[in-house]
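Weekend entry, working from home. Most of the wet-lab plans are on hold until the incubator is repaired, so I used the time to fold the two sequences that have been sitting in the queue since the last round of cloning. Logging both here for the record. First:
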Amino acid sequence: MLQAWRKTNADTAFEVWRASARDAGEWLASGMSDAALLTSPLTAAGIEHRVLGHEKIVQVSSRAREAITWDPDYVFVDYGYGFRAWHAETWPGDELARMAFSDPNWALDHLLSEGGSAYLPEPLVRPHLQQQRLFQVQSSAHFERQIVMNWRKTSIAQFPWFPTQA
């Protein structure tokens, strides 16, 4: 999505920063940023949002296998409260992952170098699945999260190409 926007809007400057929703909200409120791509809508005065799509989070493993109750090499990736609740409901065991990451890219690097399994965004792992460096865990539940663009109402006039309507 970002690559397409850059190609069709060469006169627009894009900056990509990793941030919490709270940080992104502060940046929008202060005028430091005009828009923020997040996994949830921000609700604040002067901020609007639109769901652009959804991203599938799938369980992958360094070896081909079916879903099992517990993988001792499982790596937990924390995608926030909604994912933690879904994960606890889907996998109600008492086992604690021996490795946890707050970033799926770090978890992916770990899987590729050390092995194991984790829930990762399907677009991130697609090339590794195609090359059979990773395998989607058969019969495993998946999670879906929103991709939401949030923007300052006062800034949107500068970006007439941006799709504010569904």
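Second, folded right after the first finished:
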Amino acid sequence: MTRELAAALLALTCQAASAADTVRVNTFPNAKALPFHAGMEKGFFARRGVTLELSFTESSAAQRAGLASGKFDVVHAAVDNAVALADAGTDLAIVTGGDSGMNEFFVQADVRSFADLRGRAIVVDAPNTAYAIQAKKILLKNGLKEGSDYRVVPVGRGELRLKAMAGNKDYAAAVLNLPYTIQAEQLGLKSLGSTIDMLGPYQANGAFALRAWIGSHGVLLERYIAAYVESLRWVRSAANRAECIAMLMRSLRIPRDVAERTYSALVDPVRGFTPDARFDMEGFRNLLALRAEIEGKEVRNGESYLDLSYYRRALSALGG
């Protein structure tokens, strides 16, 4: 065998190994993507033998379609999207928790109360999942019904909702998360409150994947989850505050003051990242009940959407 052929075979072997260890992850390009940036920069994924292929989505609708078609392996988003996909026939499982949303209900400066939203437009990501459902419930609690009292306009992810409100006063309200809550405040928009304060516990962000992929990549999934939890622990450590703020500034292209406030909110012990991406079963039951009420969906056994066994093994490997 020539040296050239041997080198070519070695290269092919390395490429095959890399492909076998690659996890194609899709998420939203907001502040909650910080553990991915930290994990790649600090080598947490690489040390676990995981090649992270990270991509960002414009909307949850595009993200759901990408997962269902096999374009992505693991998705990090509001897990209500996983419930919607599963109820539509996609065989998937939620494999981690993440946080309670860090969401606030923002309105235009002229809006003094929920009553002032009558006859106005509410901008959302997708009209029938996650934070749009939260918005509809909040408005219903304040006497406003979709269709007769306000209309819903889907525009996509948080960044696009903020841009829509900033560019068009007819778009009167939106549920926003970090860093867009801080930027909205700086633009003169105002918050009517936290969605958690208005609706109670809620399991928002988490990771989910097709069961077929999980079944054939179980060990890789465990390594991936372990690396993600390590990255999250690093982000939540006060010792790494300065580096995290710099990462937020680079990844989101935001000024230092916004990045500093964003980081403080991300690591808030009550409203920020859930330690170790634990899954909140009470919050998930509330999510299912809310979805059943607003969307008229039958409430299934919550456990049917979950497979947290890989998470538990990953945490065990970390000694936590």
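Plan for Monday: verify the second prediction. The domain at 104-199 is CATH 3.40.190.10 (D-Maltodextrin-Binding Protein; domain 2).
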